[in-house]
Amino acid sequence: MQERLSSVEDGIPVGYVRIPRFREDIVPNADDRKLHIIFSSGCNYFQHWQSELLLASAHFVKQGGRITRVVSGCHDKSAEKVGHRHQTFPPGQNDLLVPFAELNRSVNEDFGLYITPSFPGAKDFPWINKPSSIEHFILNARPELDRVGETIVTILDPDFVFLKPFTQRELPGSELLPPGFADGV
User: Fold this and answer.
1) Residue 62 φ/ψ region, left for φ over 0, alpha for ψ in the -120 to 50 degree band, beta for the rest
2) pTM for the predicted model, two decimal places
3) 172 occurs within a structural domain
4) Does residue 167 fall inside a structural domain?
């Protein structure tokens, strides 16, 4: 499956590099097996540490389903140079692109990694990367989603943190509210 989805541009793969796995230590209900969580990020260190925190928190709370990091911007070395471009964070070391070997490993060994090509206009308008990378993922990763019957795709940002797992099972009312909330606190 991985070979069918991946190609190489300028020595950097495009497509699935790592196929996400279901965690073996979690026995989800049948609907949780239909869940695929994706989040898009840049290829820079700024969003890499955010992505690692998200992946670690998903592992810690025993998130069911599969999770894929969709990365864009790895093919554009000019993104490292501060110049005429919109800064989404303070310039510095966080602008540097993360080496491929570092992108391809995580504290969450079950994560998937999907790398997109560069998108026109992203240097001047970096916010185009999110909708473009999600569109690229949905159009090209569909065979992998269909292979395991994932019909629910949840889209997050790399700066999200899991406090509890997402689930498709119905929770009793008391589990939906924070402790003490039902008591009027």
Assistant:
1) left
2) 0.80
3) no
4) no
